[in-house]
Amino acid sequence: MDETDRRVLELLGRDGRASYAEIGLLVNLSATAVKRRVDRLRERGVVRGFTVVLDPELLGWRTEAFVEIYCRERTSPEEILSALRQFPEVVAAWTVTGDPDALVHLRAADTRHLESVIERIRKERGVQRSRSSVVLSQLIG
């Protein structure tokens, strides 16, 4: 991976919908050359996919929570990721040290919506239980 690849990835990270031609103008390559680079990065696993990033505020999701997920034995991080990816309310998720297996950041419209999402997550295969903390106010960030 060279500096041009890094720049292409940076530009895709900012706008995953940018065309190869638009990126090419910024990195001084043809659209075809950019496509070949992206294809190569996908084949090598550097780029694993493309996704949509939702703005929770614009969706009206003003209720926020952090949920600790406790899994059954031998539940891999890939299984946790696969389960969580189907929930648009999941803003971010991490595997962590300590008792929980994962920490999940959720956004929802209200507490009823939040409860529904948590219950659906708890029904996922591999999830044993959860513990939630609802955000009251943001101090930093």
- Computed structural class: alpha+beta
State the separation between the terminal residues, measured CA to CA. Answer: 32 Å
Helix content: 25-40%
Low-confidence stretches: none
Biggest sheet record: 4 strands, antiparallel
N-to-C series of helices and strands: HHHEHEEHE
Query: What is the general shape?
Result: elongated
- Strand composition percent: 15-25%
Mean pLDDT: 94
How many beta-strand elements? 4
Kindly provide the radius of gyration, computed on alpha-carbon positions and rounded to a whole number of angstroms. 19 Å
Number of helices: 5
Strand order of the largest sheet: 2-3-1-4
Could you state the oligomeric state of the chains shown?
single chain
What's the quick description here?
Helix content is 38%, strand content 21%. The chain is α+β, with helices and mostly antiparallel strands and 141 residues long.
Care to describe what's here?
- This protein has 141 residues and is of the alpha+beta class.
- Helix content is 38%, strand content 21%.
- It has five helices and four strands; from the N terminus they run αααβαββαβ.
- Strands 2-3-1-4 form a four-stranded antiparallel beta sheet.
- α2 (20-27) packs across α3.
- It is elongated, with a radius of gyration of 19 Å.
- The mean pLDDT is 94.
